[in-house]
Every structure is written in structure tokens, then in C-alpha cells.
Design a protein that fits this description.
Structural class: alpha/beta
Number of helices: 10
CATH class of the largest domain: Alpha Beta
CATH topology of the largest domain: Rossmann fold
Oligomer: single chain
Strand content: 5-15%
Number of domains: 2
Distance between the termini: 38 Å
Order of helices and strands: EHEHEHEHEHEHHHHH
CATH superfamily of the largest domain: Response regulator
Helix content: 40-55%
Largest sheet: 6 strands, parallel
CATH architecture of the largest domain: 3-Layer(aba) Sandwich
Strand order of the largest sheet: 2-1-3-4-5-6
Radius of gyration: 19 Å
């Protein structure tokens, strides 16, 4: 299997060093370059053509959001993975809209970052659980407000409740206990949700949200 070629962009040298040490321990990941600013990341992405760019959001020149947009325009084969201290929905939606395929907070465990790299290099979307919850909560809020783009495609109120709890990472038994229903009923709701939305994974949930206009591309 070919090595996953990674470019790291963060304006703090100590962070870049820590990431380099972490990823060098992985047999299938190769660090091919580093950048301390957004424009440097863009230039190095163009010249090095990495498989994955790990992108901070706060940089000394342009933002990681703008850098991501430029990289996606000039290096469409590069997958961008956000690694940031920010977990609020404003930055999250802007980064996904700019073309990032993953969003990981810096408080995440090392194995989460490694998993994210393996996920986005395949063209799939990786969301840390708290970010998936933000996405689904926004979806349900818009649907409740009557947003024509955010209609929940025939989901019942109970199915929307189950969908929210699934996004928060709860397993069937925990959902059953919280809603005072059986685990078998939760499983049936889960199947109905996936069938109605034609979704099978968290990745497809994000793509669905983009397609339905839940993420503002402006």
C-alpha cells in the first residue's frame, strides 16, 4: 500500500513538531512538508501535491478557511483535514463549505487524528462526534423552523429524536433508556431513518446536508 503523503500547516512550531512525531510512528504515513502560514501551505500544496493537508484555522496571514479554499481550487486531489481548537458551528460550517473533508478538535485523541487521515485520503468525510452533533442539531433546527431546504423527508418527531441521539454518539440501548422505549424499537427507528434519508454513514449525512443546502456555501 502506498504511503499517505501529508503536509502539516500550523503557525506554532511546537504543534508541528508534536504532529510530526505522532505521525512518524505510523507505518503508512509520510510527512512531506510543513507550513507556518496559509499562503505557504497553498504554495507547498501546489508544489508537493500531498494526499492530505492538515490545516489549522488561525494563521498569521490568511485564514485556514481561505487557504483550504485555495488548495481545493489549485490541488483538487488534495484532501484537507481541519485540526483546530475551535468547536463552534461557525468555523465548522465555513471549513466544510471551503472544501475540507474532516474536522478534528486539537483535544482529540491521537488515534482520532490518524483515523481521520485514513478516512479523508479515501475521499470520505470524517467528523469528530461533537461536530456531527452540531451538524444534525442545525439540520433539525432548520427543519423545525420550516426551512424548505431542511425538511426532514417524512421523519416523524420520534425519528428526529432518535436521529439527534445517534449523532451524539449514543448506542441503541442508551437511546432506548433515554426515550423509555425498547432497543428493538430504536433499531427499527434507525432503519426507518436511514431508509427515508437514504443514508448509511456519517459521511453520507454530511453530503446530504450539503446537497439539501443546510450548509451555507456563500
Amino acid at each position: 500500500m502506498p504511503l499517505i503523503r501529508v503536509l502539516i500547516c500550523d503557525d506554532h512550531e511546537i504543534v508541528r513538531t508534536g504532529l510530526r512525531m505522532l505521525l512518524l510512528a505510523e507505518d503508512d504515513i509520510e510527512i512531506i512538508g510543513e507550513a507556518a502560514s496559509g499562503m505557504e501551505a497553498v504554495a507547498r500544496a501546489v508544489s508537493l501535491q500531498p494526499d492530505v493537508v492538515i490545516m489549522d484555522l488561525q494563521l498569521p496571514d490568511i485564514s485556514g478557511i481561505e487557504a483550504t479554499r485555495l488548495i481545493r481550487e489549485r490541488c483538487p486531489k488534495c484532501s484537507v483535514l481541519a485540526l483546530t481548537i475551535h468547536e463552534d458551528e461557525q468555523y465548522f460550517f465555513q471549513m466544510i463549505s471551503a472544501g475540507a473533508l474532516g474536522y478534528v478538535p486539537k483535544r482529540a485523541a491521537p488515534e482520532d487524528l490518524v483515523k481521520a487521515i485514513h478516512t479523508v485520503v479515501q475521499g470520505n468525510v470524517f467528523l469528530y462526534p461533537s461536530m456531527a452533533s452540531v451538524l444534525v442539531s442545525d439540520y433539525l433546527t432548520r427543519a423545525a423552523a420550516g426551512d424548505e431546504h431542511a425538511q426532514t423527508d417524512g421523519l416523524t418527531d420520534r425519528e428526529r429524536e432518535v436521529l439527534t441521539l445517534i449523532a451524539e454518539g449514543l448506542l441503541n440501548q442508551a437511546i432506548a433508556e433515554q426515550l423509555t422505549i425498547s432497543a428493538k424499537t430504536v433499531e427499527r427507528h434507525r432503519e426507518n431513518i436511514m431508509n427515508k434519508l437514504n443514508l448509511h454513514s456519517r459521511t453520507e449525512l454530511v453530503k446530504y446536508a450539503i446537497r439539501k443546502g443546510l450548509i451555507d456555501l456563500d
